[in-house]
Design goal:
Layout: E1 9-13, H1 24-36, E2 40-43, H2 58-70, E3 74-79, H3 95-100, E4 105-107, H4 112-122, E5 126-128, H5 139-151, E6 163-166, E7 169-178, H6 179-182, E8 197-203, H7 208-220, H8 223-226, E9 229-235, H9 236-240, H10 247-255, E10 262-264, E11 277-279, E12 282-286
Parallel strand pairs: 1-2, 1-3, 3-4, 4-5, 7-8, 8-9, 9-10
Antiparallel strand pairs: 5-11, 6-10, 7-12
Helix pairs in contact: 7-10
Domain LD-carboxypeptidase C-terminal: 172-285
Keywords: Carboxypeptidase, Hydrolase, Protease, Serine protease
Family: Belongs to the peptidase S66 family.
Length: 287
């Protein structure tokens, strides 16, 4: 899926928690890596913490994001943040303006609220992926896959390995992301319609009790009666600490419907080796 060319400008923003100033060296490394790929990074002036964890108001960060969408020289936008604050920008975004100036937007974790809102309110496809993977522990393969996928029209970053938990066929438009953060859209005008969607869920932290209560809330929202399938990504703490019941056992118990196809992958989530998945695009998986 080629979306970038050598010499293109890309925007770098932080719509969630501000980065610590100590991270400046990593951002410089990211800038250098993008430069080696032939991409010019345009950085938001609201990347770093200014007051406590805040790197500006919701309106300030939303204005920065809108201006990057409106800037025709910027070909894609990457969010480098995470945490808890991303939903502060939602009410200040001009979704019609973003729709008129549609371009790829990338983010993960707490940015689940933004990528799903942009899909639902503006009708654009967004990308669950963290650009900081290019300077992480698996940087070499990430850079290779990034270049092949977004600059050479291959699918390296979209091809993920998975196992079937139940069912044999899964088909629908993908919504979701981080299990906790996505729930912040519940009851708001920004949450996507779940009818005939495939729900993606992943998590960095959280024990059995937290996963159980999150999944129960999805059930009480009626989500599992609407969707056509579930993709379980990496549940880092649950899996690293080998909690029981595990995430597969939990979701099978709470969903309580063998007719909902479920697949499990360790390649979508918070890991430095994570692949990319498109929110708002149809996916089809067959056993």
């Amino acid at each position: 899926m080629k979306i970038l060319n050598y010499g293109d400008n890309v925007g770098i923003v932080a719509c969630s928690n501000g980065l610590d100033k100590s991270y400046e060296c990593k951002i410089a490394e990211l800038e250098n890596t993008l430069d080696l790929l032939g991409l010019k990074a345009i950085f938001s002036e609201k990347l770093y913490k200014e007051n406590s964890i805040f790197n500006g108001t919701g309106r300030e960060k939303a204005d920065i994001l809108i201006n990057l969408f409106k800037d025709s020289k910027v070909k894609a936008i990457f969010d480098v943040s995470g945490g808890d604050l991303a939903n502060e920008v939602l009410e200040y975004l001009d979704y019609e303006e973003i729709k008129k100036n549609a371009k790829p937007f990338f983010g993960y974790s707490d940015l689940s609220v933004v990528i799903n809102s942009l899909y639902y309110k503006s009708g654009i496809e967004t990308y669950l992926y963290q650009i900081r993977n290019l300077i992480g522990d698996n940087s070499e393969i990430q850079i290779k896959n990034f270049k092949e996928t977004f600059m050479e029209d291959k699918n390296s970053l979209f091809d993920f390995k998975y196992e079937w938990i139940q069912g044999k066929y899964l088909n629908g438009i993908v919504v979701g992301g981080n299990i906790r953060c996505f729930l912040k859209l519940a009851g708001t005008e920004y949450i996507p319609n779940f009818k005939d969607k495939v729900l993606l869920l992943e998590s960095l932290s959280g024990d059995v009790a937290k996963m159980s209560t999150y999944l129960t809330q999805y059930k009480q929202l009626g989500v599992f009666k609407e969707i056509t399938g579930i993709i379980l990504g990496d549940f880092t703490e649950m899996e690293n600490k080998k909690y029981t019941p595990n995430i597969i056992e939990l979701i099978q118990k709470i969903v309580d419907n063998v007719n909902i196809p479920i697949v499990k992958t360790s390649q979508i989530g918070h890991g430095s080796d994570s692949k990319c998945i498109i929110i708002g695009k149809n996916i089809e998986l067959k056993k």
